[in-house]
Design goal:
The complex is a heterodimer of chains A (266) and B (93). In chain A, 33% of the residues lie in helices and 17% in strands. Chain A is α/β, with parallel strands linked by helices and 266 residues long. Chain A has one domain: 3-Layer(aba) Sandwich (Rossmann fold), CATH 3.40.50.720. An eight-stranded mixed beta sheet of chain A has the order 3-2-1-4-5-6-7-8, with helices on both faces. In chain A, helix 4 packs across helix 10. Chain A is globular. By secondary structure, chain B is of the alpha+beta class. Chain B is 17% helix and 23% strand. Chain B contains two helices and five strands. Classes of the chains: A alpha/beta (266), B alpha+beta (93). The interface between A and B is large, with 52 and 25 residues. Bound molecules: zinc ion. The site of zinc ion has 9 residues of chain A, from helix 8.
Chain lengths: 266, 93
């Protein structure tokens, strides 16, 4: 493993941690992480993974930066309003850490492209904003045997889990077998979210990813973390593997990718 | 008394409260009593057959009741019950 002088200096504060060391830093450098959504969760995820020296970061998002995004999507800056989010994100990440290779996909993630992207990555961080993508990412990661770090937020509440069914742990459908019907989903535009909440959950997703790469610490592979920013509570509940899971159970009914069209609107 | 944690999307049914107290011998009884105190709450939690919806989990302390005995799961004084629906926000929310 070889590092340049500037790499040794840049990462010195984490290389001295015995859980990281030179070996861990090298693992980070070799790691390839796909970040789904360059928004509220994707911003802190990509920035902290990039700052930590994760060697390859993929960003997929079809949207452009909007002024109303900047309250929480800290990957983007005011001069980048109107620019594709993945391009804006690439520019910031490259300025933050030129050692990181940023690969961008300016398109929404869907059943047509996900299986071609996954082979190029070791793990996936889901920061998507809708149930359709969330279930699609879970199913695709199951079929491709990729570790998934799932985070989601709603108003003042966040949820976080590490999904590794290929190592005997539960998948997202073991937790929630199917997405809610459209009529029961709150309107995304009106839901609102605290910017800091996206930061909290996104940073925790980055933390889970780094532990996966370093193979250290306790992960959320068998738990769900629930954060309430108003009550200031973190709760961890057990998340068992469901033998009746439609995806990873003993008699699966889902054997191929399917698109879920769950509208945001009531 | 049993403490019931109400998730953000359902707090409109509980006057904004994040925690309510309930009584009952089982999760099912607790839901009936919650519905008596906060009419309409059961419809949000349960489908037409009265089963808890598949995108909503109910935890007794740390355990998902689907892996215990579902709505028949017994509860006792001092237990904490949490209602945890799937949430999806991230990129835009
Ligand atoms: Zn499963």
């Amino acid at each position: 493993m070889e590092f340049t002088e500037s790499e040794l200096e840049r990462y010195s504060r984490q290389i001295i941690l015995k859980e990281v060391g030179g070996r861990g830093q090298y693992a980070l450098k070799r790691a390839r992480a796909l970040v789904v959504g360059a928004g509220g969760l994707g911003s802190p995820i990509a920035m902290y993974l990039g700052a930590a020296g994760v060697g390859t970061i993929g960003l997929i998002d079809g949207d452009a930066v909007d002024l109303s995004n900047l309250q929480r999507q800290v990957l983007h800056t005011t001069p980048h309003v109107g620019m594709p989010k993945v391009e804006s994100g690439r520019q910031l990440l490259e300025a933050l850490n030129p050692d990181v290779r940023v690969t961008t996909y300016q398109e929404p993630l869907d059943a047509g492209n996900i299986m071609t992207l996954l082979p190029d990555y070791d793990l996936v961080l889901d920061g998507s904003d809708n149930f359709g993508t969330r279930f699609l990412v879970n199913d695709a990661c199951f079929f491709a045997r990729k570790t998934l770090i799932s985070g989601s937020i709603f108003r003042f509440e966040g949820q976080l889990a590490t999904i590794k069914p290929h190592e005997g742990h539960p998948c997202y459908r073991c937790l929630y077998p199917e997405p809610p019907p459209a009529g029961l989903v709150p309107n995304c535009q009106e839901a609102g979210v605290l910017g800091v909440l996206a930061g909290t959950i996104g940073v925790l997703q980055a933390n889970e990813a780094i532990k996966e790469i370093l193979k250290t610490g306790e992960t959320l592979a068998n738990h769900l973390l629930i954060y309430d920013a108003l009550d200031m509570t973190f709760r961890k509940v057990r998340r068992p593997k469901d033998p009746r899971c439609p995806l990873c159970g003993t008699a699966p009914t889902i054997t191929a990718l399917e698109e879920h069209h769950v509208s945001c609107r009531l | 008394m049993i403490t019931i944690r109400i998730p953000t999307p359902l707090r409109s049914m509980t006057g904004g409260k994040s925690e309510i107290e309930g009584k009952g011998a089982s999760i099912g009884e607790l839901i009936e009593q919650m519905n008596a105190d906060h009419p309409g709450l059961k419809d949000r939690l349960c489908d037409e057959q009265g089963e808890i919806r598949r995108f909503i989990n109910v935890y007794l302390n740390e355990e998902d009741i689907r892996f215990l005995t579902g709505k028949d799961t017994p509860v006792k004084d001092g237990d904490e019950v949490s209602i945890v629906p799937a949430i999806a926000g991230g990129a835009h929310d």
